[in-house]
Amino acid sequence: MDKLLEVNELTKRYSQGNVLARITLTAVDHVSFYIKPAEIFTLAGESGCGKTTTAKLVLGFEEATSGTMLHNGKMQTRREKAWITRGVQAIFQDPFSTFNPLRTVDSYFHETVRNFRLARSKQEAVDRIDQKLRLVGLTYQEFAGKYPNEFSGGQLQRISIARALVTDPKLLIADEPVSMVDASLRMSIVNLFKQLRDELGVSILYITHDLATAYYVSDRIAIMFRGNIVEMGTVEEVLMNPRHPYSQLLRDSIPQVDPEKRWTTTVTLSELEHEEYLRQGCKFAGRCPDVMDICKGVVPADIYIDDVLVKCHKYSGK
Amino acid sequence: MIEEKTVILRTEHLKAFYLLEVHGTQKTVKAVNDVDIQIYENEIYGIAGESGCGKTTLLKTLFGEIVPPLRLIDGKIFYRIDDDEVDVSRMKSEAKRKLRMEYISYIPQGSMSVFNPVLKIKGTFADFIGSHVHGQSRAEIFELARERILELGLPKNVLDVYPHQLSGGMRQRVTIALAASLNPRIMIGDEPTTALDVVVQRGVIQMLKDIQKNLKNTIVLVTHDMGVHANIADRIGIMYAGKLIEEATTEKIFAQPLHPYTQFLINSLPKFGDKSMRDSVPGSPPSLADLPTGCPFHPRCPHVKDICRQEMPNFHHLDENHKVACWLVGEA
């Protein structure tokens, strides 16, 4: 099978505290997944579940403690880093902090073109930038020479997507790209992702806590909880028929746009993230409605049910 | 709510503009432009709209917090206090200060900036409560704060930590507890659940609903997330470009939205089990400093008619609870 990116047993540990009282948090704990060409793959989970750390590791912003990453079946080495950066581009959460308020937005585009030597003349560069901007519904004329404050949040987010497209990447890493954008404009960004996948064959690693847009846009999804992938499979399987108790909780917590489907049950929230990270056994045991004795001591294994990976003791031995 | 409804908060032709001077030229940002709103006792009233539609400014004026460059151009704001209607826009600032926390309180969006970062949570509680409850020692105020925290289902040790030690969701819930600590009759929330993730958001909504049920007070909630409104609000007002354009009970708004903008807001949201193409609202919201003529939505409206470009429609009342300002409905 063709795999654009394959991540194996990726682990990242952070130490906190001083010499006397040091605790080690495993932010990403033996995470494995792959992304196929022209596919939107979602990493979903609540804040502090390790999804952004995973993105940083994939982008090479952070050094992994252990684990490997294969790009197109090849190991990433330092020598190939430039080639990889050209093929893997990032879009961040807050479009207002992506761009320096004192620089014009087009300077970012020209800088990217220069860095990767993508054009031989000024005109070629402008043509290339204009072509990418048209993909997101803007033109070079209406954008050249303007500062970030002259655009709305939704426009800036589309500009930052166009910026990422300048290098003709194979994979976009989008870290919460819609959470700062108004609900009414959110769909324009999400529809753009669909269009990029279908027309240009770009794969997208879509990181979000918004399961409704994840369902709408993605092909496969992985639900993360405290550094582990607890469930992974196609969106239809995972979101329409969630098996892991955490996926079920997450799925039920999305406010339905229907006043007749209000919540009738109550939820328990975690009090301290640290405690859940340091928990032995299944990290969700403290909040799980179906908790068993074994969950508190033994880390559950990865079980495959109908091609869906589930990390839960409920399904072991079945 | 079948029983007789009492209006607790009411505005009359409210106009609040920001008067700015940019490079020597006067600019008027019409953030709240002729809004008539009536909010009842014992209800949750939701205000929805895009960013930059004047939602936050409306809340500020409802709260009586009108400081330059924001100016009250026209209109009045009334609170109902002990069966008397009081015009807040004429109140002295000291009188308004006394009403805050005890009668009306505010839940802000960025909960990090609410708390003093160098004080423990209980210090902030003592500051807020101490400025309203007089003649009590600090220990008594701490005791009061602790009782409230426990009543609202938060762990009691939150009072003894610093704000940065709490997670975002817990901090937001402590902020709400602080706003509810003196049993106010009205609570105003500005996007209290935005930027929280879904499970925590559900916890916060649950908490707001519980508070409302126990105190039987009024909550005015602003958010752009229609899913949140569907879950919590009794009635919803839709705002666009500084104006209220549609208002109805939550069931009506979702079952039978009449204004094209409301229809866009509701239909653009993705639903589970339905992967059909969803479009966002075309175009972008108008600048409040440079509004289009007529109905402010006309440049983005797919059903635009000539009259829309010339005149702003009046409200058409479909029934007692449902009104809409659109030329497509009613007199047209």
What does this structure look like?
Chain A is 32% helix and 23% strand. Chain A has 318 residues and is an alpha/beta fold. Chain A has a single domain, classed as P-loop containing nucleotide triphosphate hydrolases (Rossmann fold, 3-Layer(aba) Sandwich), CATH 3.40.50.300. The model of chain A has no long low-confidence stretch (mean pLDDT 86). By secondary structure, chain B is α/β, with parallel strands linked by helices. Chain B folds into 2 domains: 7-92 and 194-210 and 218-285, Rossmann fold, CATH 3.40.50; 104-183. Chain B is built from 10 helices and 13 strands. The model of chain B has no long low-confidence stretch (mean pLDDT 87). The chains are: A alpha/beta (318), B alpha/beta (332). Chains A and B meet through α6, α7 and α8 of A and α5, α6, α7, α8 and α9 of B.
Tell me the count of domains of chain B: 2
Shape of chain A: globular
The spatial strand order of the largest sheet of chain A comes to: 6-7-8-3-9-10-12-11
Query: How many separate domains make up the residues of chain A?
Result: 1
Distance between the termini of chain B: 33 Å
Fraction of helical residues of chain A: 25-40%
The average pLDDT value of chain B, as a whole number, equals 87
Multimeric status of the protein: heterodimer
Task: Give the biggest beta sheet of chain B.
Answer: 8 strands, mixed
